[in-house]
Amino acid sequence: MFIFSANGRAKKDIDDIKEGQSVPFIVYVNFVDLFGAEHLCKLFLMRSGFGDIEIEKRKMVPSSLLADPRVIAADVALSEAVKTGYYIQVFDEH
To answer: How far is Cα 9 from Cα 29, in angstroms, rounded to an integer?
Structure first.
């Protein structure tokens, strides 16, 4: 599993996000290699209505953490990514 810090620009108004606004994301992708996970990250954000996606940081989650049910239960985002394959979290810009 990989965790990405990314930015995307809204293609249209989405909830409180205006068209053209750049939005920061944290994206969890449950995939075996970095190349594929990066492309899936971009695809998931594009399907959510964002373009001009830039990945700023990448981090691999060690398999030892994914094998520990206590770690999975303690982190909602990690748990959701294990269950569904990905998780997207939007951050408010201040």
So the answer is: 20
Assess whether pLDDT exceeds 60 at residue 57: yes
Domains belonging to the chain, first-starting first, are 2-90 (3.10.510)
Quickly state the pLDDT bin for 15 (edges 50, 70, 90).
confident
Q: For position 16, what pLDDT does the model report?
A: 87
What is the C-alpha to C-alpha distance for residues 19 and 80, in angstroms, rounded to an integer?
Answer: 28
Q: What is the pTM (predicted TM-score) of this model?
A: 0.90
Check: CB of residue 8 under 8 Å from CB of residue 52. yes
What are the start-end ranges of the E strands in the chain? 2-10, 22-29, 50-60, 86-90
